[in-house]
Every structure is written in structure tokens, then in C-alpha cells.
């Protein structure tokens, strides 16, 4: 390791050391049963440290299996539900709506996302999500796929998404507003800059946080500290990169979840299309202990080589995860 690499490694350890302290404080004060609970930024909402990924709920051929996973997750302590208007042509939301009947809705913090880049498209998608989810209010609505430098400008434009979101909030249809993206930390940084210029504070931000991201186009390095500083709730996604991180052969699923939990995340969203995957998530929470700097440094050393080309984070380097790019009609 040359001097430059050594300095980078020390900087990464310092960041994740601070993250470790934040995670330790959250975990020690809010462990209940089999789940850790944390606070979602400035909102004060208490959310499970593991969130249930909405895309995977739509993957089982049998809708009943997706519903079973959702209800089992809630019964065991997961209260953060992730979803999106476009997942499986709405099937993920429909399954979640069915699962949240019979008193389950009041036990969860419900989040979904929209793709609209106009006021009209956003308003329409919010109402459609409400119908599918069988609820009159969504806790957190997020601007999906902030993956282009101009997406921030679109969000704040006249007759743009923010106007529809504020109308929906006033009408009691939504409570909080956030944004997501998986492409490049520079795009997230610009969204935050544009928001600041408009005097607007996002309640949450969702982004990839995993053991490979620490090395390549790093959201952990370039966005996470700002979110923590500004009190934006941190939603980590793709801890295993839809399986691509595991294909690197350098980490296990539980190691991936432990690393993400060790960061100052409010929630780590993971996909569970089966009870076995759900068991894996709970095992990661059960065995989680804040990582010391030695453990963090060891993890970074063994993942660096696999991370450097972005091969195992194709959501950053290819268009295969860019749903709005393949379906521009979703944006309105």
C-alpha cells in the first residue's frame, strides 16, 4: 500500500469510525426484541434498522408468498416498508396493500416512491399508490431515481413534483418527503445543493451503501456525512446490490448487512423474497455488534480490489437498473 492508498484508508476508517459510534449509540438505546430501532433524521420517527425491500416482494410467482413475507416481517419487528409506484407494474404495492389489512397498516411506517417529473404525473402516481396500498395516507413519499444532474431542477420547477407533494401533504395524503437514487454521489450532492438554494429540507435520502461503495463513486464518503450533518434520514439500499456484491466472492450476506448497519443509517433496506431471506436479515441484526476500526480496515482491505472498476455495482455503471430511462413515459 503506497502513501496515497494509506491516507485514503485512514480517511475511510475515520468516517466509518464516526459511523460506528453513531450506530452504537442508536443500537444500545433502542434494541427491542429481535430488532434495532433508530430515528429517521429530524422527523423523530422510530423505524426498524432493517427495512423490507418492496421490489423483492413482487418477485414470488405466488402473491400469497409475498404477503406472508410482509406479515412475518412485521410480526417479528420490522416496521419500515419500502415500495415504489413502478415495481412490477404496481404488483408490489398491491401485495403490500393486501398484506397491511387486518390491523397491520397501523404497525408500520409505510414508504413508497414515484417517478413523475411533472405536477400532474406526480399527483396521479400518488393517488394510484394510495389505492393500491389501500391506505389514505403514506408516511414517506420519495422522488424516485434521482440519477440525472437535471433531476433536481425538475423537482423544484414550476408545475413540478414538489408542488404536487406539498398539495398532497396539505391534504393529509403524505407525511414526509424524500428522494432516492443509485447512480452517482455527485447527482445526490447536486440535489441537496438545489434544495438548499430553495430553502427546502428533505426528510430522507435513499442511496446505495455497501462494502464496495466505500471504494468506488462512494455515497458513503461523498454524501453520507452531509446527510448526517443536516439531519436528513439516511436510507441505505443495495447492501448486497441485488446479489451482485456477493458475486465478487469477497463477502458474505451477513457481512454485507453488518457493514451497512454499522454506518449512521436510519434504515438498511434489504430485499426478502422468501422467509429464508427474511431469516438472514434477522440473523444479521441478532449478531450485529458495532465494528471497531480494526475490523473496518480489514473489511475495506479485502473488498478494495473487487470494488475498483464498479463491476459488482452495475446500478452505478450501467443502465440496467434505470427504470425511468427505459420507460420515459413514467415521468410524464
Describe this protein's structure:
Strand 6, helix 5 and strand 7 (138-143) form a beta-alpha-beta unit. The N and C termini lie far apart (50 Å). By secondary structure, the chain is α/β, with parallel strands linked by helices. It is built from 15 helices and 11 strands. The chain has an 8-stranded parallel beta barrel with strand order 4-5-6-7-8-9-10-11, surrounded by 5 helices. It is globular and about 50 Å long.
In short:
With 332 residues, the protein is of the alpha/beta class.
SSE topology:
Layout: H1 3-29, E1 31-32, E2 35-39, E3 46-48, E4 50-52, H2 54-57, H3 63-76, E5 80-81, H4 91-99, E6 109-114, H5 119-133, E7 138-143, H6 151-156, H7 161-170, E8 174-180, H8 185-197, E9 204-208, H9 219-222, H10 224-230, E10 233-237, H11 253-262, E11 267-270, H12 275-287, H13 293-307, H14 314-317, H15 323-326
Parallel strand pairs: 4-5, 4-11, 5-6, 6-7, 7-8, 8-9, 9-10, 10-11
Antiparallel strand pairs: 1-2, 2-3
Helix pairs in contact: 1-13, 3-4, 4-5, 5-7, 11-12
Amino acid at each position: 500500500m503506497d502513501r496515497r492508498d494509506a491516507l485514503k484508508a485512514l480517511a475511510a476508517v475515520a468516517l466509518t469510525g464516526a459511523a460506528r459510534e453513531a450506530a452504537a449509540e442508536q443500537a444500545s438505546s433502542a434494541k427491542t426484541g429481535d430488532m434495532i430501532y433508530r430515528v429517521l433524521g429530524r422527523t423523530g420517527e422510530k423505524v426498524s434498522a432493517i427495512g423490507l425491500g418492496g421490489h423483492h416482494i413482487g418477485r414470488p410467482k405466488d402473491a400469497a408468498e409475498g404477503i406472508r413475507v410482509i406479515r412475518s416481517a412485521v410480526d417479528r419487528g420490522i416496521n419500515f416498508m419500502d415500495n415504489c409506484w413502478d415495481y412490477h407494474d404496481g404488483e408490489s404495492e398491491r401485495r403490500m396493500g393486501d398484506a397491511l389489512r387486518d390491523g397491520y397498516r397501523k404497525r408500520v411506517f409505510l414508504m413508497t416512491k414515484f417517478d413523475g417529473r411533472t405536477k400532474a404525473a406526480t399527483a396521479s402516481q400518488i393517488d394510484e399508490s394510495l389505492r393500491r396500498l389501500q391506505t389514505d395516507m403514506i408516511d414517506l413519499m420519495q422522488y424516485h431515481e434521482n440519477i440525472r444532474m437535471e433531476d433536481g431542477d425538475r423537482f423544484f420547477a414550476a408545475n413540478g413534483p414538489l408542488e404536487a407533494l406539498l398539495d398532497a401533504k396539505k391534504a393529509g395524503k403524505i407525511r414526509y418527503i424524500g428522494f432516492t437514487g443509485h447512480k452517482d454521489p455527485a447527482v445526490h450532492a447536486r440535489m441537496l445543493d438545489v434544495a438548499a438554494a430553495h430553502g427546502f429540507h428533505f426528510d430522507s435520502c435513499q442511496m446505495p451503501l455497501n462494502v464496495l461503495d466505500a471504494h468506488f463513486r462512494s455515497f458513503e464518503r461523498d454524501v453520507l456525512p452531509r446527510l448526517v450533518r443536516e439531519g436528513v434520514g439516511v436510507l441505505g439500499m443495495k447492501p448486497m446490490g441485488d446479489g451482485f456484491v456477493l458475486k465478487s466472492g469477497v463477502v458474505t450476506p451477513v457481512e454485507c448487512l453488518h457493514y451497512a448497519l454499522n454506518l449512521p443509517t436510519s434504515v438498511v433496506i434489504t430485499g426478502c423474497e422468501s422467509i429464508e431471506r427474511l431469516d438472514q436479515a434477522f440473523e444479521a441484526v441478532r449478531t450485529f455488534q458495532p465494528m471497531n476500526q480494526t475490523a473496518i480496515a480489514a473489511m475495506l482491505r479485502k473488498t478494495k480490489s473487487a470494488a475498483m472498476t464498479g463491476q459488482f455495482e452495475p446500478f452505478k455503471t450501467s443502465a440496467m437498473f434505470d427504470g425511468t430511462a427505459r420507460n420515459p413515459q413514467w415521468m410524464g
